[in-house]
Amino acid sequence: xxxxxxxxxxxxxxxxxxxxxxxxxxxxxxxxxxxxxxxxxxxxxxxxxxxxxxxxxxxxxxxxxxxxxxxxxxxxxxxxxxxxxxxxxxxxxxxxxxxxxxxxxxxxxxxxxxxxxxxxxxxxxxxxxxxxxxxxxxxxxxxxxxxxxxxxxxxxxxxxxxxxxxxxxxxxxxxxxxxxxxxxxxxxxxxxxxxxxxxxxxxxxxxxxxxxxxxxxxxxx
Length: 221
Description:
The protein has 221 residues and is of the alpha+beta class. The protein is 20% helix and 38% strand.
């Protein structure tokens, strides 16, 4: 074979190796970029604060979590990303149709019982016990409005969190029959905390939907 033929063969071999070298360079750059992305997605170290705002994408909420496990039942991946449904809402509103509280049962427990639910999103208000159970840690709003049944008496009602009185209201005008006791509050609640109303004194006008008890989740923590 001539020297000219050998030179031509070497040029063709070098030309064939050029795409391979380019592909190897591209793979090295891709590996470096992938390593940088994984470092950015890595969970924060212990003691770091979780200041990342939620990212809403197609009805889902993605938040970067801290090193502590979630206490509200959210699913957390190995990269520390918690996924919660954007449509998860909590709210209830209950009324009384039965007249003249306290009843025989509430005389024993001092609980104000409600017999009809207008709203119970999430089913976290138990009608039998007339208590709300928090499904997750968060800030909750509660309000109540109860009407006394007789004049010349005083009623006093307390909103109880885990059997501890948080707020109270009373109505004691001796000349007014349909006087109401009302109050409202924002509460910081942990998961499984309970809230109910306690009748400390007097009798309530329960019929005709005068007495109400409502609450909802403002935002989770």
